[in-house]
Amino acid sequence: MNVVDSESVPQVGQLVKVLRGRDAESYAVIIRIEDQRFVWIADGDKRKFDSPKKKNRLHLQTFDYISTEVRDSMTESGRVTNGKLRFAVNKFKQTIEGQSEKGE
């Protein structure tokens, strides 16, 4: 995973936490950027790649991490497997849990 500037424009492969809506408190990956206001997200589990959710950027908390696996797959083929999405989300969750344990 690469570190990016949190003030920058969202990028494909960036991890987000949903703050509003039915999927609140869940994590997902940006798979497409609609415009300045909306992005499309999927997690590979409840939200598959073939049926992503269009979300307002104001309803998402973006993190400074980009899944290189997802980004590379999207640039090469325009698609990503649901397994790679699940892997990216789980890897990110483990990273967050590891940081919270170190902080205690």
What does this structure look like?
The chain is α+β, with helices and mostly antiparallel strands and 104 residues long. The protein has a single domain (2-103), classed as SH3 type barrels. The protein contains two helices and six strands; from the N terminus they run E-E-E-E-E-E-H-H. It has a six-stranded antiparallel β-sheet with strand order 1-6-2-3-4-5. Strand 2 (14-18) and strand 3 (27-33) form a beta hairpin. It is globular and about 35 Å long. It starts with a strand and ends with a helix. The mean pLDDT is 90.
| Strand composition percent | 25-35%
Separate helix tally: 2
Whole-Å distance between the termini? 24 Å
Please bin the fraction of helical residues. Answer: 25-40%
| Counted beta strands | 6
Q: Supply the number of structural domains.
A: 1
Mean pLDDT: 90
CATH architecture designation: Roll
Strand order of the largest sheet: 1-6-2-3-4-5
Oligomer: single chain
Main sheet makeup: 6 strands, antiparallel
Element order, helices and strands?
A: EEEEEEHH
Broad CATH class: Mainly Beta
Instruction: Give Rg in angstroms.
Output: 13 Å
C-alpha geometry: globular
Return the structural class: alpha+beta
| Low-pLDDT sequence parts | none
CATH fold label: SH3 type barrels
Task: Produce the secondary structure layout.
Layout: E1 2-3, E2 14-18, E3 27-33, E4 38-42, E5 53-56, E6 60-66, H1 68-77, H2 82-103
Antiparallel strand pairs: 1-6, 2-3, 2-6, 3-4, 4-5
Question: Which terms would index this structure?
Answer:
104 residues; alpha+beta; SH3 type barrels; 6 strands
